[in-house]
Amino acid sequence: MALVLGAVYASPAHGESVWDYVQKHRADGSYSDSTLRTRVEIQDLFRELTAWAALGTIPEGATTRAHELGWALEEQDELLFIVPADEVARGLGWCVLRLGPEVPDLVLEAPHGWSDLHTGRITADLFEAGVGRAACFNGAHRHSSSQGDLRGGTADRTSDLAHRPDSAYQAATLGIVSALGDPLLVQVHGFGDQHRSFSAVVSAGASLQPASVVRHAMTLLDPLLSPHGLVADGTMVRELAGTTNVQGRATSTTSRFIHLELSLPVRQQLIASDDQLSQLGAALERLAESAP
């Protein structure tokens, strides 16, 4: 049990998996963006929680700050879950941090955990297996209703967190990566049968980073994924390149970013085979530990 300074928080049910948490905190209801002031506070909170995670603890007062922003902190073994505190907050999304030293600066995300079938399960299982410092998941379904754009626009009323720059999820992502030394942010997505000749599309989205990052990722992933089809980059399949992804765009100066699109057969194989999942995790950790 990690030492916690000045904090009292709820303990989750013993033995619950990360995937159990994803399912329990799913919210298909309405979604709302967050105000600028709230996003700044969220970013600061997640930055501090991530920085302290390497010490195996959380900063004093973090539980109260999290509650005021709509979250509760829950610890299970060496994991710290930052989860919605009530029904109002359920659509915000949530994250889990690994406590303790010697963890690669790797952040996993599944912003479409259910609509991109199995991507939430794959991300949760990777993290549960020991891969990464943090993992973040959507709360509301990507097609849930929302209030629209805080700045007055009404063109996008969906809850697709990969395209909502004013979301709490975006602020949490920015806070997490800013606390890490040389972070790699990997978002797991899925595509359908219209691109059945490909097993995966690996891209940097709109991120500003050396092309070598994507090339290295493709080299590491090819042995695992190529039996299911070609491993492509974003220039080959531009509609799957994630060029409008707001997390990749916003973190382009603070982290490396991989937008990883997986075919359905690959996703099915990953949830069916611990060995395949382990190989994917090892490849992502090697990429995270490589020089950009």
Question: Notable features of this structure?
Answer:
292 residues; alpha/beta; Aminopeptidase; 9 strands; 18% strand; disordered N terminus
Which structural category fits the helices and strands? alpha/beta
Mean pLDDT: 86
Please mark out the parts with pLDDT under 50 across 5 or more consecutive residues, or reply none. Answer: 1-13, 147-155
Tell me the major beta sheet: 9 strands, mixed
Individual helix count: 9
The residue fraction in helices comes out at 25-40%
According to CATH, the homologous superfamily is Poly-gamma-glutamate hydrolase, zinc-binding motif
Total domain count? 1
* β-strand number: 9
CATH class: Alpha Beta
Shape: globular
Distance between the termini: 35 Å
Strand order of the largest sheet: 1-2-3-5-4-6-9-7-8
Strand content: 15-25%
